[in-house]
Amino acid sequence: MKMPAGVFRSLLIGSVACASLWGGIAMAQNYPVKPIRLVFGYTAGGAGDVSARMLAQKLAEILGQNVVVENRPGAGGAIADDAVAKAPADGYTLLYAAGSTAILPALRSKLPYDVARDFAPVSLVVITSFALSLHPSVPVRDVNGLIALARAQPGKLTVSSPGIGSSAHFAGEVFKMMAGVKMLHVPFKGPPEATAAVVSGELDVGFPSVTGALPFIATHRLRALAVTSARRASQLPAVPTLDETGLSGYERAGWNGVLAPAAVPKDIIARLNAAIVKAANTPETKDAFFKQGLETQTSTPEQFSAFIRRELTQNAKVVKFAGIRAE
User: Fold this and answer.
1) Quick one: 50 and 116 in the same domain?
2) CB-side exposure of 40: number of CA atoms within 13 Å?
3) Three-class DSSP category at 130
4) 290: how many CB neighbours lie within 10 A of its CB?
5) Considering the domain boundaries, does residue 114 fall inside one?
6) Which pLDDT tens digit goes with each residue over 140-195?
7) Could you tell me if 55 and 38 are in contact, meaning their C-beta atoms sit under 8 angstroms apart?
8) Which of 21, 138, 273, 292 is the most exposed place for a label (fewest CB within 10 A)?
């Protein structure tokens, strides 16, 4: 008896779907069977690159395959982001994302990829807290005093950053937005120059990384009022968070985490997440991160996804508030 064409098509579609499902399960169970590329959008040598290589080494031990860090600098990280967004969704090309991944969409309207659509978050790995710091000549001792002074003299206080669109720049703009103050933003070409401007007294306020600020805090050339992360920085345990000082809900930090192309199977995402959490939280890795000024902060894929969504939303508000334009 001849099978009706509609029934045949349904059976064929079902067979293809089953084959695809079982193929995906088999791929996830065997994963990984070849080296993994961890793409990083900046040059070698910085703290982000060093942490990527530390993570890659531990992941290789856990997964039983080489994990190779590939530096693809350019366009503020967008070249690397785009390459991974368009890579095969097999789990062998991953992005070691930085805070810029969530900043760029707010600054550039024509990116060739969509962060929310084209990536599958795997895990946050590390954060870098910034220290709200003053030159000692600024006559305040705490955050409330700084806010009062800035409100009394709108636009008079100056605040440095290592560049327009940098994570530290956004930390400062979120502070101004939440505190309801006006301060004059002065961008520099990098963190050392931005910090030096406050240490010298050329500018009043800065948001250097905790690690970058420590030597100057220790020698009383900078006064740290607060840190920008949700939790106190382990390097400055006596310094409160901005949230603790009264800016309820304030949370900004530099960060790195792992993203995969959006269609990577969930079983592979789960395998990678478990490996990353294990690798990043070994005592030797946590200590190595700490020496780079980084704090281990891993997450579930769902938590990392929510974190990125919050960053994207807040960054869009900051750009609108401050009228920031890409360099």
Assistant:
1) yes
2) 24
3) strand
4) 15
5) yes
6) 999 999 999 999 999 999 999 999 999 999 999 999 999 999 999 999 999 999 99
7) yes
8) 21
